[in-house]
């Protein structure tokens, strides 16, 4: 390894980057645009739930229950119906996501210290939202029952759970999504950036000049890698600052630890891009290959959108080959939990192994010979 030749390759790549406006836009603007777009577009929070009420009791107790739903901030009452036959039409037309049915003996049973039931009819066409809506409804009903017991209207003492949420106390989905987006976006952008490097040399005819120099394969790969490591780390910093400043995501961990683990992850992702570039030899084909091999696995199999625990066993095995899975744990752990290096040592070692594998593949596949 000759440091002078390595530095010359890195300087050559910087000059090419400055002349390539598209690569600069891809390097700096694309991560920020994707973070803003996905950060606002993706949300697992369910609010303003359209709610209809069928109050067959019309008592003070039933009105108090309705007020409990209304004051929670999650439910937005859109209609009051008089017949059970109207429920199906409301759900079919999308005018209501939940219909609260209060039976005619609701107030009487509460007054007699008996157990009273309330029916919640939920539109289950969106299973995830329906599950969350039902959880909200149960929580409000339990709170109402406990309040009635404290007021002396109910003699029975229901079992109540005192719960506490750590790290994301308000259960805001954005706090979980934005750190995960950093991992997904960096995987995509890093591989796409370097997937153009060697293919660009072949298409522009400069590979012949490179082949005439004494520079080795390792020096070419590492020299092309160095500028993009700096760009990738700058993108991580910009994304983290934007996540904290624009989306209000808390940052409890060490910025230095984030940068160190990001470096290991970026080296692997950039090495994967150079490997693709060496195999494809065409910028168009290399870009398509980089998108397919990074975007779908990082988005679907890293645990970002769907929990890995609920995937089929075969897919769970495949996720171990997705490096974004480990970087996702790193970003969420540092942002939300403030964990240290001891907690993230397994993810760090796996990302280092990914970096070594990516560089090794790139060096082995790259050939200076003209064929």
How would you characterize the overall build of this protein?
- Helix content is 64%, strand content 6%.
- The chain is elongated, with a radius of gyration of 28 Å.
- It folds into two domains: 3-42 and 172-365, no CATH class; 49-150, abc type-2 transporter like fold.
- By secondary structure, the chain is mainly α.
- It starts with a helix and ends in a 6-residue tail after the last helix.
- Helix 3 links the parallel strand 1 (49-55) and strand 2.
- It contains 15 helices and four strands.
- The model is unreliable at 157-161 (pLDDT under 50).
- Helix 3 (60-71) packs across helix 6 (127-150), helix 10 (217-247) crosses helix 15 (345-365) and helix 11 (255-280) packs parallel to helix 15.
- The protein has a four-stranded mixed beta sheet.
Number of helices: 15
Structural class, by secondary structure, is mainly alpha
Unreliable residue stretches:
157-161
Order of helices and strands: HHEHEHEHEHHHHHHHHHH
Strand proportion, as a percent range, falls in 5-15%
As a percent range, the share of helical residues equals 55-70%
The total strand number stands at 4
Based on Cα principal axes, name the global outline.
Answer: elongated
Summarize the helices and strands and which ones pair or pack.
Elements (H helix, E strand, L loop, with lengths): L2 H17 L1 H21 L7 E7 L4 H12 L3 E6 L6 H6 L5 E5 L3 H6 L7 E4 L4 H24 L22 H22 L2 H8 L2 H5 L5 H31 L7 H26 L2 H18 L12 H7 L3 H15 L7 H21 L6
Helix pairs in contact: 1-10, 2-7, 2-10, 3-6, 7-10, 7-11, 7-12, 7-14, 10-11, 10-15, 11-12, 11-14, 11-15, 14-15
């Amino acid at each position: 390894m000759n440091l002078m030749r390595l530095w010359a390759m890195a300087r050559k790549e910087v000059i090419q980057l400055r002349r390539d406006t598209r690569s600069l836009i891809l390097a700096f603007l694309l991560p920020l645009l994707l973070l803003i777009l996905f950060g606002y577009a993706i949300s697992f929070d369910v609010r303003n739930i359209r709610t209809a009420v069928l109050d067959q009791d019309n008592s003070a107790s039933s009105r108090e229950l309705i007020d409990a739903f209304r004051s929670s901030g999650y439910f937005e009452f859109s209609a009051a119906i008089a017949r059970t036959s109207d429920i199906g039409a409301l759900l079919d037309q999308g005018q209501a996501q939940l219909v609260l049915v209060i039976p005619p003996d609701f107030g009487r049973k509460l007054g007699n210290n008996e157990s009273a039931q309330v029916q919640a009819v939920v539109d289950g066409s969106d299973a995830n939202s329906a599950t969350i809506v039902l959880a909200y409804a149960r929580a409000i009903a339990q709170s109402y029952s406990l309040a009635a017991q404290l007021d002396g209207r109910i003699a029975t003492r229901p079992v109540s759970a005192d719960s506490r949420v750590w790290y994301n106390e308000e259960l805001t989905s954005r706090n979980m999504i934005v750190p995960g987006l950093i991992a997904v976006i960096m995987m995509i952008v890093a591989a796409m950036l370097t997937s153009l490097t060697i293919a660009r040399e072949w298409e522009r005819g400069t590979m012949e000049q490179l082949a005439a120099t004494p520079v080795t394969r390792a020096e070419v790969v590492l020299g092309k890698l160095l500028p993009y490591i700096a760009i990738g780390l700058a993108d991580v910093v910009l994304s983290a600052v934007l996540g904290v400043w624009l989306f209000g995501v808390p940052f409890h961990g060490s910025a230095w630890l984030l940068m160190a683990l990001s470096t290991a992850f970026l080296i692997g992702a950039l090495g994967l891009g150079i490997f693709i570039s060496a195999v494809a030899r065409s910028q168009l084909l290399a870009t398509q290959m980089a998108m397919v091999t990074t975007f779908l696995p990082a988005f679907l199999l890293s645990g970002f959108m769907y929990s890995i625990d609920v995937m089929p066993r075969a897919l769970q095995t495949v996720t171990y080959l997705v490096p974004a899975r480990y970087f996702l744990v790193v970003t969420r752990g540092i942002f939300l939990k403030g964990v240290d290096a001891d907690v993230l040592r397994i993810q760090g070692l796996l990302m280092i192994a990914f970096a070594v594998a990516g560089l090794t593949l790139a060096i082995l596949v790259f050939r200076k010979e003209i064929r």
